[in-house]
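Standup notes
- DV: blocked on the single-chain target, sequence here:
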Amino acid sequence: MKVDGTIEKFKARLVMQGFRQKSRIDYFDTYAQVARISTIRLLIALASIHSLIIHQMDMKTTFLNGELEEEVYMNQPHGFIMLGNENKLCKLIKSLYGLKQAPKKLHQKFDEVVDLTKEFLSLRFFMKDMGKADVILGIRIKHESNEISISQSHYIEKNYFAPSQRNGSSSVTAPMDTSEKLMPFNGRTVSQLEYYRVIGCLMYVMTCTRPDIAFAVGKLSMYTSNPGVIYVSSVTIYVKSGLRKNLLFTGSDTDPDVASLVDKVSFTKSESVNS
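- DV (later): unblocked, structure below
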């Protein structure tokens, strides 16, 4: 999906039945390296300070770049069984989606060439140069002069609000009344699974771009066993009314150390720049 919600392309993927793998036989070490949100924010801050443009690249068929050391076989996938060889198996040469060791194999391969340029990566892998970074992990990046803002309005609209909550016009100035004490709920409850999903989405938004809801999210997370509608309604209205809020990174003529980067971050509405 594109950032505006339209379909960019359709994609199918062959996935290995990794749940049938046996430890110490089909695989050994497993891990998946992911970027911390704080690292991404730090890079954005540095780009803003030094007036740099952020670019991003996507590695197509990512896990297929990893080379297997273990001997792994799989059944021929349905729809692609070779006539006359129906009883034969496929021996994997490269790692495949679903394999427990696939993320590790990818990073082992990628580390061999990670210090080289985008041009060299394109020669070694089937890469797509995506140009200026627009969306990273559900975070929208917007360049304005020497300032960079990040927001998650599209992520909130897609993953957080129920259809009945999107049309309301109410607004609040704070996510929760700090003087109000939440008590165990005995009335009509909401779906516990739905409540978990909402809390999970709020936690991600809080971690990435909305630190202003940290207190409310922490409180709501304490009442997951029997949640009520009233517990999330005020936060829902607040997040919706502040949908366009973002984190703004402003540039500087000096080169600050890492410890002072926090001074370069302000919380603002996208309509105006207010530190």
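- Follow-up: The beta strands are 55-59, 73-74, 90-91, 127-132, 135-136, 139-144, 147-151, 245-250, 265-269.
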